[in-house]
């Protein structure tokens, strides 16, 4: 877990891509769940932020 936070602070690609992928997955989950309307409401923005974040961090150094 310490390596993950070290990678985040040093702008390493791996941890940031993992965070962006988790955001994309969370946004898709929020889109498909039938229980809470507020989750559905914010699902698009969460997925969009994760996608844009993934595009940006794919240019970070390894």
Name some characteristics of this structure.
62 residues; mainly alpha; elongated; 79% helix; 3 helices
Task: Describe what is shown at a glance.
The protein has helices at residues 2-9, 13-32, 37-57. By secondary structure, it is mostly helical.
Number-wise, the strands total 0
The number of helical segments is 3
Characterize the overall form. Answer: elongated
- Helical percentage: over 70%
Overall pLDDT score: 92
Query: What's the end-to-end separation, in Å?
Result: 18 Å
The main β sheet shows up as: none
Rg (CA only) = 13 Å
Query: What is the helix/strand order?
Result: HHH
Structural class: mainly alpha
Strand content: under 5%
Low-pLDDT parts are none
Q: Your description of this structure?
A:
With 62 residues, the protein is mainly alpha-helical. Helix content is 79%, strand content 0%. It has helices at residues 2-9, 13-32, 37-57. Helix 1 (2-9) crosses helix 2. The chain starts with a helix and ends in a 5-residue tail after the last helix. The mean pLDDT is 92.
């Amino acid at each position: 877990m310490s390596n993950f936070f070290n990678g985040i602070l040093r702008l390493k690609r791996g941890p940031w891509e993992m965070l962006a992928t988790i955001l994309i997955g969370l946004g898709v989950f929020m889109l498909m769940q039938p229980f809470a309307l507020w989750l559905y409401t914010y699902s698009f923005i969460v997925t969009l932020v994760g996608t844009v974040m993934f595009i940006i961090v794919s240019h970070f150094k390894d």
